[in-house]
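stuck on this fold:
=====
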Amino acid sequence: MHVVVCGGGVVGLAAAHYLARRGAEVTVCEAGSLGSGNTDRSAGGIRAQFSTEVNVRLSLASLEVWDEFETAFGVDIAHRRSGYLFLARSAETAERFREQVRMQNDLGVPSEFLSPDAAREHCPELHAEAFHGATYSPTDGFADPHLALQGFSGAAREAGAEIRTKTPVLGVEIEETGDPVTADVTVDTPDERLDADVFVNAAGAWARRVGSLVGLDLPIAPRRRQVAVVAPETPVPESVPLTIDLDTGSYFRPEREGQALVGGHFADEDPDVDPDDYDTGMDLDWAVEAVECAADTAGYFGPESGIVRGWAGLYAVTPDHHPIVERSKPGVVTAGGFSGHGFQHSPATGKLVAELCLDGEASLLDISRLAGERFEHGESEDEQNVA
């Protein structure tokens, strides 16, 4: 079987790796350079503290890979398990946290609900008096997305995958043969036409545009998100978790040498942007607001804090902040719309894509709730733990 994967980010390369390892002929088509879409702009978070069961299961299946990545792929991805700390400013959010922790614990996640004072043990400069509660899990953390990309791309090549950069997909023709899984697929690129059995859309922020090439209208919107590297007034110890003030959307995590990575989306408007034409730089006004929000959360960010640098990337957002992972039609598999969680869920997604292409169905976990038709049938469930 020949599978053409559109997208040379971490999701596409994870899929290429697992497909090639199972014996498929794989060609990856990336319009730019590997990771140039948004993988290299990711904050690198890895967590299991989600509000829905399917996202937790995606995390757990991915954590099995992240925890052993250096051994399996020979690349140290700087995986730091300093935890995630979610904060609730309202009693309503705190009660939702309690319910989520019960669900997470039932699935094997060692998360716990904390009082604000107990949360301060993990984040010593936390303004505990501003919060009603928190959740924390010690197995959460973050890693370097670029190094993970190198691991997956190297392993995919070693398994026989062909990875083509500067190779945009210009068109796709699908001729159904009666097989529910495969089709006669022709993929147009600037250099040649590729004949394949399955086409995988792992195009990230371009997923809707690529979906239209195969007759799909995917509800995946490119939304701009920014990150700043800050020199806090008080250095943030590396032991401090990635801390999310969920009711404001503000978050920060320690960087090297006491610096912090600060992010969040604070505007009421959240327009779609053109993934080929948007500002990849950081807005200074946004950075000032981001540092002020972080200062409302913890005492590290006093008035002497400095903004070092920053950048902007894209979330590929669905209406319910869950991805679409499915066999969309014979010969077409979709893996997109991760709403900021694509990096951390890429190992599980890569395995699922391989199963959908080669087996016709997923067995790693139940992905029925990730089918695109959920939006037509009103069966979507919002992921609430999104920053």
About this structure: Residues 132 and 331 are 50 Å apart (CA to CA). The chain has a mean pLDDT of 97. The chain is about 25% helix and 25% strand.
